[in-house]
Amino acid sequence: MKKIIFKNWSNSIIIVALIASIIGSLAGMVSGFYAANLLNSYNEPVLESTLWQKVLKQNLKEKSGEKYLATSNEETKSIEAVEKANPAVVSIVVSKYVSRYYGMQRVPFDDFFDDFFNFGFPFDDYYRLQPEEDDNKEPKQKQEVGGGTGFIISGKEGLVLTNKHVINEEDAEYTVITNDGEKYEAKVLASDPFNDIAILKVEVKDLPEVKLGDSDKIKIGQTAIAIGNALGEYRNTVTKGVISGISRRIVAGDAMGNSEVLEDVIQTDAAINFGNSGGPLINLQGEVIGVNTAINREGQLIGFAIPINQVKKAIGDVKEHGRVIRPFLGVRYLLIDEEIAKENKLPYNYGALIVRGEAMTDLAVIPGSPANKAGLVENDIILEINNQKITEEKPLVKEIQKYKPGEELKLKIYHQGEEKTIKVILEEYQD
Question: Counting Cβ atoms within 10 Å, is residue 62 exposed (0-12), middle (13-18) or buried (19+)?
Fold first, then answer.
């Protein structure tokens, strides 16, 4: 066999390189063909025999240019939760006949939480009610003067839950706007005398509805998602945070001097904006655990929601009786804790101390009330109701709401230096 002899290193390098190139090309074609077949069959069930095949398959997938979103488990749950609840979240617009007022005072919608807690729509224009004597001078015009958010609790009956302070305008008209942009006229069906909730009704059936969760099971630190009509402009805005606190007691007031005590509320750092009032606070299962109600304007991301378990009974009352039925005792009180007991030299670090309100008309015991009939007076301490201690975790109002009007309760009280037990029959609150 004739030998091939290279004349010099230069020629030999060129020929070797050429041969290597040809071999490499052939190998590339073979591996490319194999890889293409492997990619084409990636979505088909295959029997993986070795680890290197799995690694190769994943590498081929990543290098193939295929784009996919790798989300964390919590992200996936958040997305699914919002998708479940969002269709049942609605915007509520409040309209009434007013005349334009070109002064500097803003009186468009005296939201109950307008000063310290605020959820009304922000408006560029200023309005005031037209006095009757000025009717001939300037005609009234129908304007949007406020609003908030709500969510559908019964799609078959067209029932929408929101905050009471969203619908507290007299002579106003209410419009519900669903997530898909449909508008429906709504009427106020009922409002809760002791809580900041109200129920509207629209004459339409087969609407999507939310699923109500169990607010007694929530834990500090768990994920919370708020949905609402942010700034009255961005419908169904979603924000996410955690449960920052539970069993809070807050006093919400407005610039007009009105105030309302909200017991046992949820604190969250999920951003709650103007217009979110009445919207749902949901968990990662898409269940409503609270009704967004108030924000603290002095802090950052400090919002509050009414636990949904406080609302369930009201919903049942409205469906069954057409109104919210609340048991009534008839006292104003201050929950006693270690600090209050120490400062006032009280013999107990728990219980409800019966006290007057800030105004002269805010009596400690309401005349003619069940408490008055049972002999309770100012400075008495209600220690127990039916053997249940009154504490910060189990406040008086929460314990009273467990019973119905007409039921007799056994109260252990501290009266003028001694403990005694009395009986009281609850009555239905009449607004």
Answer: exposed
Residue 307 belongs to a domain:
yes
Q: What is the pLDDT of residue 205?
A: 85
The H or E element spanning position 24 is: helix 9-40
Could you tell me if 357 and 259 lie in one domain? no
Residue 68 covered by a domain: no
What is the Cα–Cα distance from 184 to 201, expressed in whole angstroms? Answer: 10
Which helix (H) or strand (E) segment is 314 a member of?
A: helix 308-321
CB 104 within 8 A of CB 164: no
Question: For the domain that residue 391 is a member of, what is the CATH number?
Answer: 2.30.42.10
Question: Could you tell me if residue 4 is inside a domain?
Answer: no
Closest by CA position to 310, among listed 140, 195, 390, 208: 195
Q: Indicate whether 151 and 283 sit together in one domain.
A: yes
- Which of 196, 254, 264, 269 is labelled catalytic? 196
Nearest Cα neighbor of 247 from 300, 310, 191 is 310
Selected catalytic residue, list 165, 244, 254, 380:
165
To the query of whether residue 277 is one of the catalytic residues in this protein, the response is: yes
Is position 165 annotated as part of the catalytic site?
yes
Regarding whether 318 and 221 lie in a shared domain, the answer is yes
Q: What local confidence, expressed as pLDDT, does residue 137 receive?
A: 60
Fill in the amino acid letter for 286: G
- Which positions ≥6 away from 140 have C-beta within 8 Å? 97, 98, 99, 130
Question: How much is the pLDDT for 236?
Answer: 87
Cβ-Cβ contacts under 8 Å for 85 (sequence gap 6 or more):
151, 210, 211, 227, 280, 282, 286, 287, 288
Give the active site residue among 269, 277, 369, 380: 277
Number of domains composing the chain = 3
Q: By the 8 A CB rule, do 137 and 189 touch?
A: no
Range of the domain at 47: 9-63
Domain boundary among the residues 324, 345, 372 is at: 324
So what's the pLDDT on residue 146? 83
Q: Are residues 332 and 400 in the same domain?
A: yes
pLDDT for res 240: 95
Q: Give the integer Cα–Cα distance in Å for 63 and 83.
A: 32
In a domain, 2, yes or no: no
Is residue 312 located within the same domain as residue 183?
yes
Q: Which residue ranges in the chain fall short of pLDDT 70?
A: 1-71, 99-139, 232, 252-259, 299
